[in-house]
Amino acid sequence: GTSDPYVKFKLNGKTLYKSKVVYKNLNPVWDETVVLPIQNLSQKLWVKVYDRDLTSSDFMGSAFIALTELELNRTTEQILKLEDPNSLEDDMGVIVLNLSLAVKQGDFKRNVSVTGCLGGLQPSPAPCSSVWRAVCRGDCVRMKKQFCMYKRFTSLLAFQSSFMRSVRLSDSLRKNQLWNGLVTITLLEGKNIPGGGLAEIFILLKLGDQRYKSKTLCKSANPQWREQFDFHYFSDRKDILDIEVWRKDNKKHEELLGTCKVDITALPTKQTNRLELPLEKHPGSLLMLVAVAPCTGVSISDLCVCPLGDPTERKQISQRYCIKNSFQDIKDIGFLQVKVLKAADLLAADFSGKSDPFCVLELGNDSLQTHTVYKNLNPEWNKVFTFPIKDIHDVLEVTVFDEDGDKPPDFLGKVAIPLLSIRNGKQSCYTLKNKDLERASKGVIYLELDVLFNPVKASIRTFKPREKRFMEENRKFSKKILSRNVDRVKKITMAIWNTIQFLRSCFLWESTVKSVIAFVVFVITVWSVELYMVPLALLVLFAYNFSLIKTGKVSSTQDAQASEAAELMGLDEDDDEDDKESEKKGLIERIHMVQEIIIAVQSILEEIASFGERIKNTFNWTVPFLSVLACLVLVAATVILYYIPLRYIVLIWGINKFTKKFRNPYAIDNNELLDFLSRVPSDVQ
């Protein structure tokens, strides 16, 4: 009962612009701005709406914009009724646009532009001047002189205004980005949720522009979540925590069951507050723990005052993360300093052949941003950013965007740097990649990174659940990803199948020598094996793979995996959606059902493949820190199993499990082995 609409702007049969797809929505909001060059105002600019499907796009109606009716340099809102002569529907819906007609500066051939805004976003000021239209009616000589003078004057004004704007933005960005606290929400359970016994229940939590979605639970009026979420807290803002309870039935229909609010500023800090929140205008309540704690280590500064540049401050930070402080403030794992120096040879995103680049740095859910350097393909930022490290296995992502006024910024390139791969104090040049990090993009960026962390705290954190990410867009079906996941699962399946076939050949005596050796090893192993030998055998496997890497017989596991991943990613590179118009509308519900099933299969295959690859990569020393940690755990397990009888170990384990609820009634259940494996990268990662 829904659609996946997107919009095309067409002129003379040519597509000038195509919007993003808004999935599963009959009232989509695009929030996009587009500038379109128009040669002749008598032309009709068509706006056509399509529904994206697996194989083709279904036509959902069209309307046209009469350009002659637009007033120059004035923004008007138009509500266009969509029509389809081949449809039996009388009401095809409407599309809302903000339109502004302006004269484009400097280009004789392309002198009119239309700024269209879908979804009601206010358009950016027109980047052109009405002076040009008036001047065009005079004689050519006077026109050229006035235009040259005007151009010099506007260039000077643009330079001065962009410089002042950079200074103002730099100060305001620094102030608005730096959080000084963390709000930790532990969502425990719901009580008497209306309709909870008839549908699946999930929770949405919002604090400012930060959003989390809980896991979806089975049908129950008293669901148990036991999940933890961390929000950034800005003491100078009066943000209210909004909590929404939703239910989802078998037809994927979602319904709001109730809401409640929490005033974070009214809660005492540095303590855990147990709250039972009744739902507004509905029966039922939610039980949760809320803790507000101060946060340090977040800063933006110039190169001359970077924190680790001062020997005294560097010594203090190093002492904070030394071994002797391993059990003080267990959540404070480390400190990251990033010097964003400059970029070179960036992609030109503007009509002028320039860009207005700025950088966004992301570490988990933490995000900071540089100021914008205007009209430059080789910008220099020379800023220093610091982050507190909550998980040493996080990846620092640095993305370069082009500022585009009120429109969403254009993507220019991205790099991803695992914290454990950082070489302290070394300036490095990174090639920018595309959004999926699969192929190189245009340009490079220069960074200097320093990371200080406590290895004991980092090891303890490895066996706890990863931090949940803010809400992201729903996963989409991709033939490329599905094909890649099928190949990954096929490799794991073939490895297991080959092992089974080897054992079968030994039992069938297909090779006498092989079967005799297998029989002797089997008898000796069963007769002499002890339980402590199991982790000892795994340690031998670690040692064997380590010796292969050191002797050069295996050049680089990561290089081999990277080449395999590149081959997999190369499948179906031209996986673009079919733009062919389709007027036929049949079996839409079945197609949506097939889409959901395929997306579910795609996700399950990825989980299976990633699980097998992570086990392999643990033994292959892909991440040395994790492999060393696994070896230490196996050594401890070997010693414990050698000296302590198994019955005592099982007894201690059982007592811990039975008494955990009484010792900590609000504890969050987790599996340490799965939490460890979640830090090991898969081949694709």
Protein architecture, described:
With 685 residues, this protein is α+β, with helices and mostly antiparallel strands. The chain has four domains: 5-101, Immunoglobulin-like (Sandwich), CATH 2.60.40.150; 181-294, Immunoglobulin-like; 299-462, C2 domain (Immunoglobulin-like, Sandwich); 479-550 and 591-678, no CATH class. It is 32% helix and 31% strand. It has a five-stranded mixed sheet with strand order 2-1-4-5-26, with no helix packed on it. A five-stranded antiparallel sheet has the order 17-21-18-25-24, covered by helices on one side. It has a four-stranded antiparallel sheet with strand order 3-8-7-6. A hairpin with a 2-residue loop joins strand 1 (5-11) and strand 2. The protein is globular, with a radius of gyration of 30 Å.
The CATH architecture designation of the largest domain is: Sandwich
* Radius of gyration over all CA atoms, rounded: 30 Å
What's the total number of strands?
Answer: 26
Describe the main β-sheet briefly.
5 strands, mixed
CATH homologous superfamily descriptor of the largest domain: C2 domain
Query: What's the level 1 CATH class of the largest domain?
Result: Mainly Beta
Count the domains: 4
Structural class: alpha+beta
Q: What do we call the CATH topology of the largest domain?
A: Immunoglobulin-like
Q: How would you write the strand order of the largest sheet?
A: 2-1-4-5-26
Separation of termini?
Answer: 36 Å
Helix content: 25-40%
**Taking all residues together, what is the mean pLDDT?**
81
